[in-house]
Specification:
single chain, 165 residues, alpha/beta, seven-stranded mixed β-sheet, 27% strand, globular
């Protein structure tokens, strides 16, 4: 499968169900500290802040400065790239920025204007096997997905079930 940066990927009921059934596991900061930071990716304000407080700086950090759909609670991070990404969508521009970060092997901070939840999918798509993606689970904690071939295949299935416009 090819992930196209000239198109937007829109969540469908079928893709949403697949995501809900395969939501990773709860993880601890101790487990995250064991990962080479070059192969660590973070999505979500609480998660990014937690990692920074613990001296952990992932290769990619994606955040929207809000939590629980609207409570502005986190400061912006200097040097971040801003990109619009509406709720329920993976925008082509977000895909382009994530792909470029992997191609250039460059540490990057992406501030989303809109919603960042689905950004986990293009990260998994481009990240090497054995990488770790961490993300916030509201009212629960920090989740993680260790990327392996099964996870990559599942991600491709989810992306194929999304509407592409």
């Amino acid at each position: 499968m090819q992930l196209r940066s000239d198109k937007d990927y829109i969540l469908t009921d079928e893709s949403k169900l697949l995501i809900q059934k395969n939501n990773g596991k709860i993880t601890t900061i101790e487990e995250i500290k064991e990962i080479d930071q070059r192969f660590l990716y973070a999505v979500g304000d609480f998660t990014c802040q937690l990692l920074e407080k613990n001296g952990i700086y992932p290769q990619i950090m994606i955040f929207d400065l809000t939590t629980k759909r609207g409570e502005k609670s986190y400061p912006d991070r200097p040097g971040s790239i801003q990109v619009e990404n509406p709720q329920g969508i993976i925008s082509g521009k977000l895909i382009e920025i994530i792909e470029k970060s992997f191609n250039e092997n460059k540490r990057i901070k992406i501030r989303i204007i809109g919603e960042e939840d689905l950004a986990v999918l293009p990260i998994i798509f481009y990240a090497p096997v054995n990488s770790l993606v961490v993300y916030g689970i509201p009212d629960v904690g920090t989740g993680s997905i260790r990327i392996d071939e099964r996870v990559k295949e599942l991600t491709n299935s989810i992306l194929e079930k999304m509407e592409v416009k």
